[in-house]
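Please produce the structure of this protein holding guanosine-5'-triphosphate.
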Amino acid sequence: MNHSNLEASQGEQSTEVGELEQLRRLLFGGELENLLKRPPVQAQDVSAVLADAIVESQQQSPQFSAATVPTVEAAIRHSVKLDSNILSDALFPVIGPATRKSVSTAIRNLTQSLNQGLEHSLSPKSFQWRLEAARTGRSFAEVVMLRTLVYQVEQVLLIHRETGLLLQQVMSDSASAQDPDLVSAMLTAIQDFVKDSFNVQAGGSLDTLEFGELNIWIEEGPQAVLACVIRGNAPQELRELLQDSLEKVHRSFGTVLQTFEGDTDPIAGSRLYLEDCLRSQFKGKSDSESSQKQPPTLALITGCLLLGISGWLAYSIWAQQRWNDYVNLLNQQPGLVVIHSDHRWGSYHLSGLRDPFAVDPQKLMVEHTSLNPKKVEFRWSSYVSLDQEILLQRLQRWLSPPSEVSLTLGETGILRVSGVASQDWIDSAMAIAESSDGFSADIIRQWDFSQLQSAEQHRLEQLQARLESRIILFGDGKSKPEMLTEIEAQAQDLKAFVAIARRLGRSPQMVLNGQADPRGDRAQNLKLSQERAQYVQEQLLAQGVPARVLAIKALGARGNTDLLGEGQAAQFRSVTFSIRDEGPEEQ
Amino acid sequence: MIQKKVCMIGAFATGKTSLVARFVKGLYSDKYQTTIGVKIDKKQVALGEQTINMVLWDIYGEDEFQNIKMSYLRGTAGYLLVVDGTRRETLEIAVQLQAKVEKNIGPIPFVLIVNKFDLQAEWEISDEDLAPLQHRGWSILKGSAKTAQGVEDSFLQLAQMLMAPKLTSLAQA
Ligand SMILES: Nc1nc2c(ncn2[C@@H]2O[C@H](COP(=O)(O)OP(=O)(O)OP(=O)(O)O)[C@@H](O)[C@H]2O)c(=O)[nH]1
Ligand SMILES: [Mg+2]
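Below is the modeled complex.
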């Protein structure tokens, strides 16, 4: 304004003359009049210059920012009072990321130390590392870190590009300190040296230095350079992160950097961006970003999973073996053919051919395996097996032989039917043998019944043997026996014998042989033997034996007197019996 | 904190490395190990209430085989021009270097130190030789890395010039 201009122009001459002159001009010059005539300042006028004025005042002194603080604070307070939603809506997009970031940083630090502690406190490696720590005098934690490290950003330097002066730096907790001032100057010197010495094209720069497992990555920006001291092999993503951080630094501090005169305080805020680059990765973690994720529970879950998988593998191998054993066992059974078998997810499927005479597969399963028959789905198609064993079973069923009969199939294909059976059964068996060629021709070439006896015949032979073995003894010169019981038994046997013989179409006779000992008169002896036979005949008749089956033979004296003692002579005072078969009965 | 890049320049074997070692660590050795490329050191100096971190670039000395590359001086706030009092030609080289720096980098503050004052008897440089330079407004000190004489003064003077560039340039004008 004119007034202040005037004041400023006069201000230098701080003499009394100056002040008087000023007063004089005010009172008598046109100034006062002008001032009074001037209309009050219009809002439009101010609005036209307001934005520029603010920018100007901010550039000239930091006081403007300070001056506006109470107003801004009051405005915010007022806004919240009116409608808190407006502000919260505006802040919403930044609050989420901000909280996430601070929480995740805190958790990252916690889990990193937890993880390492957990993972390495019990492993066999840890013992080795403890030894190494003791040997080298390093702390255990340090040894663990070095041995498990994939990469770690140990130091991040923000360097002023032109002067090589350090603007800001951050370091990881575990890194060993290097004087960052010297490092940044030296890096710049090296950069200069390379550019000078190797005639690099414009825009080209040294971006990696390697020294053993130590790497220095350098990102150059227009005003500042970001250098990263890395131990180990860092992934390429880190390079992008560096570029990103450097861009942010330039965006936030571009003007400060341009006018940099050695005062680093205004750039202190860049620390945030550098800290972002302090990444690391340890072995056993797939996360390429850093060790920030994968809490110990995940390792635990992975462990359980692995354990589960190996357990499941072992189980399924065992189950597969058990199943295979069973299928093999089935295939060994006559009359069973397994065509398809598989098992999936604990349920089993079996299909094949089964002769109805074959063993029951389910029964076999229960008796020989630990498999649960309920989990197995059987699908059998019936067929006729020509397996010997099954064939015999089938015949057995057809013939249904009595228990005394056995069937054996010899190597040469001869089926031997042996034992004792009723004639009826024998007849029917023979009939089957005649007609069985159809299904068994290849296996059974010949039937052998030679060892098979009819039960009746057998009985006849038994009875005949008993009948012929009895002997009725008489006293010296007597024509009546001392005991009658033998005769009664003979009568019973004989009646049975005759009955069976008749059924078989035969008419046997029993001959009663009367005998006397050789002592005494020959004629007398003949008579005596006649009387003895007749007596037994009468007795048998009395017991109900039909007359026509009996015949008498008087044999007279038997044996030689000179050769016999008394005991032997008694043998000849007897009636003996012999059976003769008269052939088919004539009726 | 204020940081300043400061370069040590001069002919070879004038004692640049020795001056830095004396100033930074208080050490001195008679053994000569020529500097290859650049060696960096730093020293914090207090000027009144201000602390300045001087980052010292000890650059190899100029000889017949290689000239000092101006790229090393990029961004430097000031420099120490080192002359060996026992060798006259080092003064000539210093004058040439100063001109070269002014041309390439600009009129930045510097202090000229004539080193090896302990060998004053053998000096080939007299006050008469230095007078015209002094007349041009150059700050010239005599010193010795061996005895530490004038070393701190030189660096502190330079530091002062760095902190008040306008004043210094005014004074030089
Ligand atoms: N007597 C004496 N000898 C000095 C002094 N300063 C340096 N020297 C010796 O001079 C020799 C060279 O010193 P340097 O400091 O290496 O010289 P420089 O300028 O760094 O040399 P370049 O790196 O090759 O350019 C060494 O043998 C030093 O011991 C000094 O003040 N007095
Ligand atoms: Mg040197």
